[in-house]
Amino acid sequence: MLTATTPAPLAPYKSLSNEELATRINVVRAELGPKLLILGHHYQQDEVIALADLTGDSYQLSKLAADSEDCRYIAFCGVHFMAETADILANRPEKLADRNGERVTVFLPDMAAGCSMADMAGIHQIEDAWDQLGEVLDTRDITPVTYINSAASLKAFVGKHGGIVCTSSNAQAAIEWAFARTNKVMFFPDQHLGRNTAAGMGIPLAQMPVWDPFAPELGGNTAAALQQSRVLLWKGHCSVHQMFKPEHVAMFRAKHPGIRVLVHPECPREVFELADESGSTGKIIRTVESAPPGTKWVIGTELHLVNRLKQQHPEQEIYFLSPVVCMCATMYRIDLAHLCWTLENLSAGTSVNPIEVDEETARWSLVALERMLEVS
Ligand code: SF4
């Protein structure tokens, strides 16, 4: 059905109202029926979420889409690495065999929707770090673990080197899996998730050096520090969760006695340590949903998710843990104009912004993703 013809231009879509765009998107949804899935990440803006067939975190969405038998097209309203993961899972060999070789095409409505954290761990930087580590350590004694918020090239590196992918909800299980194999773990790309998880497992902070890919040598560490390490942390972070500060926690506690502080483990250690509860986006949602009416919360995660929780739970008092706007600006690029443009081009048989991971990268990424499934 899809051809390489010139796509209709995006510009005219930008002047349409959200109501008109939603109507036109629904026309394509009706036309394609179950062949099309629109996936909306929890951090997406409300207008997009309202049109999504499925909502969730990146892994839940990819898994749900990959397991759908009828789906042939996925419009992933998230960021680039999420669309890559969906492509890898939806087109894994057994799924292709079930569909007689027919591929699922994944679209990212705006190619500029990247992830600053994933971009902090480029594959050439990783390969260089591994080579440098090999000069002072036996890298066969290091298991690489990567957060799912990473490029497919990093997942493939991890798969090839005996490692595993994790999400924010199974990071501890993945690190335990890694320690069952080697004495050291290298955690990519989010230093905060790695540090918060490993500290919770009793690993001293002094045994978690940070590898800075821009340092002149050994990631800014001494050979001795690397040799004594248990968990090597890559110097990456989420630009959204990095914004939460201990003074924000102090401010809310002073203003609202009894308030519960609930944060995502991508938050810096000094904020994480002050929280009453922590967890993945899924856990944050479940925690709020199950709390008794009248509970006061201040939540440290992406703004759109917190605002949605506020609307859905008027029986509770919910605040956002920062005086400044912390939203995922790249995910926000996916608006109804881009979604409508992608879908109407698809309906006309033209592919815009398809995400297709090359075969070798997909194969090794899948190895690392499947190891995660075994421990989850
Ligand atoms: S919230 Fe952070 S980790 Fe998640 S997609 Fe945005 S920049 Fe990446």
Offer a quick outline of the entry:
Helix 8 links the parallel strand 5 (142-147) and strand 6 (164-166). The radius of gyration is 21 Å and the shape is globular. It is built from 17 helices and 14 strands.
What does this structure look like?
The structure is a single chain. With 376 residues, the protein is of the alpha/beta class. The protein has three domains: 11-114 and 331-356, NadA-like (Rossmann fold, 3-Layer(aba) Sandwich); 117-238, 3-Layer(aba) Sandwich (Rossmann fold); 241-320, NadA-like (Rossmann fold), CATH 3.40.50. It is 43% helix and 14% strand. The protein is built from 17 helices and 14 strands. The protein has helices at residues 18-32, 46-49, 58-67, 80-90, 93-98, 116-119, 123-136, 152-160, 171-179, 191-200, 223-228, 246-255, 269-272, 281-289, 303-312, 336-347, 359-375, and strands at 36-41, 54-56, 73-77, 105-107, 142-147, 164-166, 184-188, 210-211, 231-234, 260-263, 277-278, 296-300, 317-320, 354-355. The strands form three sheets. Strands 2-1-3-4-14 form a five-stranded mixed sheet, sandwiched between helices. Helix 1 (18-32) packs parallel to helix 16, helix 3 (58-67) packs parallel to helix 4 and helix 8 packs across helix 17. The longest helix is centred in the C-terminal third of the chain and has 17 residues, at 359-375. It starts with 17 loop residues before the first helix and ends with a helix. 48% of the residues are buried. The model has no long low-confidence stretch (mean pLDDT 95). Bound molecules: iron/sulfur cluster. Residues 43, 79, 115-117, 149, 238-240, 302, 328, 330-331 line the site of iron/sulfur cluster.
